[in-house]
Structure formats: C-alpha cells, structure tokens
Amino acid sequence: MELSWFMLALLTITGFIAGIINTLAGGGSNLTLPALMILGLPADVANATNRVGVFMQSLVGMRGFNQHGQLPLYDLKGILLPVLGGGLLGSGLASYLPPSLLKPVLLGTMISMSVVILFRPSTVFPGPEEKSLTVKQSSGAWWILFAAGIYGGFVQAGVGFVLIAAIGGSLRYDLVKTNALKMLCTAAFTSVALAVFIARGQVAWLPGIVLAMATMVGARVGVRLALRVSQRFMKWFLFLMTVAASLAALL
Predict the structure, then answer these.
(1) Of 226, 207, 119, 130, whose CA–CA distance to 171 is shortest?
(2) 243 CB neighbour count, 10 Å cutoff
(3) Could you say which of 9, 141, 215, 227 would form a disulfide bridge with 15 (CB–CB 3.0 to 4.6 Å)?
(4) What is d(CA 148, CA 101) in angstroms, rounded to the nearest whole number?
(5) In the chain, how many domains are there?
(6) d(CA 166, CA 160)
C-alpha cells in the first residue's frame, strides 16, 4: 500500500508518543491501533502490523535500561518461559478468533487494572524496603506471568499495565526495574506473536516499518524520563494511562 504525507505524519506522531507511553507505563497501542485502522487496515491486520513497532521499541527500551544497570537478568529463564508460552497461546487465539473479541477483553482488563491501582496499590507497587523475588520464590508468579503473556499475545493494547502488575505485584521489583523487565517480556512474547502473524500473512509491512521507526525514537526518550522522574510520578502516570486506556476501550 502507498502512504500519503498525512498517513506518514499520523504514524510518525502517534508512534513517537506511543513509544514514550509504552516505556513509562503502557497503553500506547490505543493510539497506534486506531491510526493503523484510519489507514484502512482491518482490525486483525492492524493488530498484527502494530506488533512490528512494539517489538522494535521494546528492544530499544530494554537496551536503554540495561545500559543504566536497571535490567535485572538473574531470573531471566524463570520470567521468560511463562511469558513466551502465554504469548504463543494468545497470538494463536488472536489469529483465529473473531476480532470482535478484542475490545471486551481490553475493556475488562483495563477497568480491572484501574480499580486495583486506585484502591489496592500495594498489590502492584512494592514498599520501599521490600526485596525482589525470583519466580520460584513467589507463589503463583509463574501462572501470573503466563496469563500476562496470553493477554499480550491476544490483544497487545494495554499489555504494559498487565506486565507491570504481574512483575511488580508478584516479584516485587521497583517501578524502574519493573518497566525494564516489562520491555524484555514484551520483546519476548511479541517476537512469538509476530512470527505467527507473519506466517498468516497479516502484517502490512510499509506502515509497520514507519511506525516502528517512530516508536523506537519514542522509547529512547521514554527510558531517559523513566530514569529521572520520581516513583510517585510514575504511579500516578500509570494510573492516568490506565484510565485513559479504559476510556479508549469504551469508544
């Protein structure tokens, strides 16, 4: 497909903003998915094409956090195995089930996340003196991460919130390290999901590559912001983005 100047500008602007939002919290796909559908892509193709940008921005964000010593890798296998397994299952479901299921799943998840962050923040955010845990040390962490992988493979939009809840809530990392691991997990299961969508011929490559370039720049900016802002700011930003995602899902 050919891209007009309007389409290029739309993908560049939304991609850049989404890259920042996804690095700091999540919900950037609520901007990029509608942008792709404005181009005329069907919902399932837009969902698949969006993964190109998500994968590339995750690699950039992961590398940025790692360069600043904020990406804990000692429990890599324990974290990635359930996420990858869930991502494979979720992407398979997304590829074969009706696209009409995406919206109710997204809406239900985002509203639940908003309620938890507002009324039970300790469920997601560890206290300042809490020590992080490995997957083996945390009861139920494996299944929580597996469920997060299923959601990410199936919907993608809002998966950052789900991963923050899964990683911060079950493994008790602070928000900076949680965000770093979130980018790592997103890159992992998105690679699986993207492979499924490519095999099914559901990726529109030209808009996908344009979007990816913009989100990569946004991710670089997002890492710098994440390292500089306070934990309090991050918590409120996460809550506001979750509410915004809930409202977007209602439209």
Answers:
(1) 130
(2) 17
(3) 215
(4) 17
(5) 1
(6) 10
The total of other beta-carbon atoms located within 10 Å of residue 232's CB is 9
Query: What does the block give as tokens for 204?
Result: 């529109």
pTM of the model: 0.84
If residue 75 lies in a helix (H) or strand (E), which one and from where to where? none
- In the chain, the amino acid numbered 204 is A
170 vs 8, 152, 190, 240, CA distance in Å? 40, 17, 22, 22
d(CA 183, CA 187): 6
Residues of the domain holding 13:
5-250
Q: Give the Cα separation of 251 and 248 in Å (integer).
A: 5
Q: Phi, psi (5° rounding) for residue 2?
A: -90, 150
Is 26:151 a contact under the CB 8 Å cutoff?
no
Count of beta carbons in the 10 Å neighbourhood of residue 212: 24
CA distance 58 to 220: 10
3-state percent helix, strand, coil for the chain, nearest multiple of 5: 80, 0, 20
> What whole-number distance in Å separates Cα of residue 55 and Cα of residue 122?
30
At 183, list the tokens: 């980018």
pLDDT digits (tens, 9 = 90+) for 75-119: 989 999 998 888 888 878 877 877 777 778 777 777 777 787 777
